[in-house]
Input
Amino acid sequence: MLDHKNHACTVFTDRRYDYPENVRTRRKTGSYEVGRAKRAEILDVATRLFAASGYHKVPLSQIAADVGLSESGLLHHFRSKKHLLLAVAERRLEQTALWWGSRRHDGEDDPLEVFRNMVESTRELVREPGLIELFVLISAEAADATTPAHQLYASWYQRAVDETAQRLRDGVERGFLEPGTNVGGCAREIIAVSDGLQLQWVLSGGEVDLVEAIRDHSRRLARALLTPEHAAAADGL
Output
């Protein structure tokens, strides 16, 4: 058995064998890294399968088989399919945040930057339709404050509102948007419209043209918010 206090190993006798510190560290680190790599592999496969087929159509056994594990072996890394779903959603939100971060071009004279990026981000979404379903699915659970999804989504929405508002604020400061624009209110509207349309897309079985619906809303909002000298640019969306 392992004596954690003395860092020694006892095997059936009272004789103690002290392993060198570097050996103990290597064993612990190696095991951690292997587990971390396998967890990442599971997330990769689950994301791909959920994106292609949707959450409900992909059994855990299929994900496990694709990563060379039994179903019980997969559950060693994720306690349930719902826990795996939440981990996939968390990773997806992080990737979305990175995408938006990569789209900021300080100093670029584009009065339509935030509106154009809303259309482009929607175009990225529809390339993985199963993940739209996943997002909507977890949104319903996030309404319950006792679930892990609640904190994840609450943090995500606050971050999304703050960052969208800042982009709009930048537009005001550059003279693209009208002074006095309610950037917080507009940011919440942009996000609410996007999420509401995603729900309608799921309910319609994908019949709603999500990209064009977002483009239409972005164009109308841009016309309302752009200063007179830049308003005509909205037609270019």
